[in-house]
């Protein structure tokens, strides 16, 4: 909070000096008028002014309204920022104990003040960020300051004022504050785990790079040397990424981290002409399927269907497994064409001036067969 405040709030020091003067002068004058010591009261007022300046002056950062970073404060005593927050509230606890001699009530009030600050940062459009870690650090500072203040009273042989009343009042204040804060958080505040989100973004970016490298390599293997990537797209689906790579010879899609290809489509569908026998179609389809998507081809039923006539004829080869237990099986569908150029490589040739090449494939759900006796 402190580092972010100094960086995000322009003129923080000047604002603090003005605010300190505004609270210090009246506090000192009122104390003198009442015949009470003014230095300690003035010091506490100035420090509280500093706390408000650091935490509540408008900045240029922060989450959306009514959001709060609810990540667990796991680095409370190892993070420099958290330790600075502890140090921000500790002097207030120390000074308040010296003034009121009620350490339990002071510690509870410090924790409640910290919660009020964080809720204000969440609710008001201040450009500040509510954080459970900051709340824990601030409350820890208030408690630590109160403990040190109590120790200092003991060293000065000045006992706390009405210890039992202080204990009961402090516990009641802490309980009431905790219930109020919990009620507001539950009813209005949306929790956001910033650390987890950052880790997810980092993992997503890293996975995207690795997935692009894998699919680019697959595209080069499918379309051959000289394949150049012209663009890519990433779509998140649960814990998986669906990556699509566009190249100068066609597109390829696959799932990451499964390393599972799901579709490809050559941009050169009709590079030549010539008849293909069923054997040539089968050889081209089997070679491609068993190399690139074997889990959807091995042991499956294969069907071949020609589409079109003459030079425009292509072949659809489908691999599917019969339904088991009423489920709809996954099917693999390939398009085989007569191609003289940059189709998907299979190595199958006709020996008659034409090559049988797979020019596209897709993995998807097979259509349910129509029951016998029904149209």
Can you put this structure into words, describing what you see?
This protein is of the alpha+beta class and 375 residues long. The protein is 49% helix and 19% strand. It contains nine helices and ten strands. It has helices at 2-8, 12-33, 39-56, 80-100, 103-123, 132-155, 163-187, 194-223, 278-292; strands at 67-69, 190-192, 229-237, 240-247, 250-256, 260-266, 301-307, 314-320, 330-338, 356-365. The strands form two sheets. Strands 3-4-5-6-10-9-8-7 form an eight-stranded antiparallel beta sheet, covered by helices on one side. Helix 3 (39-56) runs antiparallel to helix 4. The model is unreliable at 348-353 and 367-375 (pLDDT under 50).
Quick summary of this structure?
The chain is built from 9 helices and 10 strands. It is an alpha+beta fold and 375 residues long.
Q: So what's the oligomer here?
A: single chain
Sheet with the most strands: spatial strand order? 3-4-5-6-10-9-8-7
Q: Compute the CA-based radius of gyration.
A: 36 Å
> Could you give a short account of the major beta sheet?
8 strands, antiparallel
Low-confidence stretches: 348-353, 367-375
Class per helix and strand makeup: alpha+beta
- The coarse overall form would be rod-shaped
- Alpha plus pi helix count: 9
Share in β-strands:
15-25%
Helix content: 40-55%
**Number of beta-strand segments:** 10
Q: Roughly how many Å apart are the termini?
A: 70 Å
The topology string of helices and strands comes to HHHEHHHHEHEEEEHEEEE
Q: Give the rounded overall mean pLDDT.
A: 83
